[in-house]
């Protein structure tokens, strides 16, 4: 079972600190933190077509050359909603960022 937890941390946590937190609980197999800058990167957010019916966001962050586990499902859906509806308007961000590989630079994601 996955329990998504979204929170604001004022300073970036190193992997050792985050892993010690996970090890302190028998209910947590793995934890990691992802920066707001990473979540805003057009290289991190993709979309997955689920069963030809739904399009869901997916985030894949690499840190120091090591990939974090993908963020998908309910967790990605929650992050995407918070980014789109709360943070982007407040911080005057374009979210999701335009795909840098598109020639026109237009946002090709579906809403």
Quick structural gist:
The chain has 111 residues and is of the alpha+beta class.
Write out key terms for the chains shown.
single chain; about 110 residues; alpha+beta; two-stranded antiparallel ribbon; 3 helices; 4 strands; about 30% helix; globular; disordered C terminus
Describe the protein's architecture and organization.
With 111 residues, the chain is an alpha+beta fold. It has 3 helices and 4 strands. Mean pLDDT is 77; it is low at 103-111.
Set down the secondary structure blueprint.
Elements: H1 15-23, H2 36-40, E1 45-50, E2 54-59, E3 62-63, E4 66-67, H3 73-91
Antiparallel strand pairs: 1-2, 3-4
Q: Supply the helix-strand structural class.
A: alpha+beta
First-to-last CA distance: 28 Å
Percent of residues in helices? 25-40%
pLDDT averaged residue by residue: 77
Number of strands: 4
Rounded radius of gyration (Å) = 15 Å
**Unreliable stretches covering 5 or more consecutive residues:** 103-111
Assembly form of the protein: single chain
Shape verdict: globular
Q: What is the N-to-C order of secondary-structure elements (H for helix, E for strand)?
A: HHEEEEH
| Amount of beta strand | 5-15%
Largest sheet, strands/sense/barrel: 2 strands, antiparallel
Count of DSSP H/I helices? 3
The strand line-up of the biggest sheet is 1-2
